[in-house]
Amino acid sequence: MSDRRPRAAWRRPPAEPRAAAASPEPPEARPSVVQAGLYRDGQRVSSPATLSETFRQLREHPDGMAWIGLQRPTEDELHSLAAEFDLHELAVEDAMEAHQRPKLERYGDTLFVVLRAARYLDAQEEVDFGELHVFVGPDFLITVRHGAAPDLSAVRRRMEQAPELLALGPEAVLYAILDAVVDGYAPVVEGVQNDIDEIETEVFGGDPAVSRRIYELSREMVEFQRATRPLVGMLHGLMAGFAKYGTDEELQRYLRDVADHVTHTSERVDGFRQALTEILTVNATLVTQQQNAEMRALAEAGFEQNEEIKKISAWAAILFAPTLVGTIYGMNFDSMPELHWTGGYPFAIGLMGLVCTGLYVIFKRRDWL
User: Fold this and answer.
1) What sections of 184-248 are H helices per DSSP?
2) Which residues 6+ apart lie within 8 Å of 255 measured at CB?
């Protein structure tokens, strides 16, 4: 990743010291400066409190390495770093703004790396993404964090406890950061796997709210895929430059291990997306089947109701005929000729029976009764 010449040879010639650069005095450290340290032979020799103090001490110790950690820095701070370390303006512009895609770019002797870290929030059952920008030079490493992840203080402690690894220079620190970001994906993968198992149970349990959960987790997997997939190509690009830049063999082994882990994670994430797509399809099928069953049940209920209505209507019609005849002959008008007819009563009874029997036969043939 970089030339393995003695670190002193990496720095500018004495005739062109950084102090000669026509740039404004760097601003004092603000809360965005999380931590700064100067290292020599894998050991921390000082902990400057401000950026200007870090720059001064690094000039005084050209064989040292500065490790500066920032979180959401101001433009003035980034401009002072750019003036001090000859950072490319495009890389600085990217570092000022979050929402960059993971990438690795080389500007002369400086590497600019953008990483997407992730952590699983168990209480909310969601994935929280952070963004990390890393500048790697011959004698400096600058991290710019946008978000809570990753925990770079743990990376610093780890490297300080392994001075033989830290002595390999900024490339070793970059490896440790890459390793921390990739290791941070493991709890996310486990958390998402648990969520998918729960979703499968809810799908077959008929939970109506599961569709929204599938959709939200699918969106998170899209973001997770955007964070992991480019990292595979970035690490393979670093490995392709091992011979060209004389990368230490120990670092080569470490980076290959990180590449294996991120490849495995990327494959798991791809599998999660496919699984969620299939679960969503199954859920849609089950919902459709449930809706069809409900519609069929409603149709059957309607059919049964119609049958009952037909029976009631048929009996009402049958009972209406004698009621009509009886009503007419119950009006008691003297002028009605049938009132004094000897056969009037048998005729009325016979008429009622005939009409009722005829209606019954008709309704029975039509399956109304």
Assistant:
1) 185-205, 210-240, 242-245
2) 175, 178, 235, 238, 239, 247
> For 43-81, what is each residue's pLDDT tens digit?
999 888 888 888 888 888 888 899 999 887 888 888 889
More confident residue, 121 or 331: 121
At residue 242's C-alpha, the angle toward residues 240 and 246, to 5°, is 155
Tell me phi and psi for residue 140, to 5 degrees. -155, 155
pLDDT band at 335 (very low <50, low <70, confident <90, very high): low
Q: What is the pLDDT of residues 295-311, one digit of tens each?
A: 888 888 887 788 778 78
Write the DSSP assignment of 298-364 as a string of letters: HHHHHHHHHHHHHHHHHHHHHHHHHHHHHHHTTS--TT-GGGG-TTHHHHHHHHHHHHHHHHHHHHH
| ∠ Cα 116 226 275 (to 5°) | 125
Residue whose tokens read 């490849």: 263
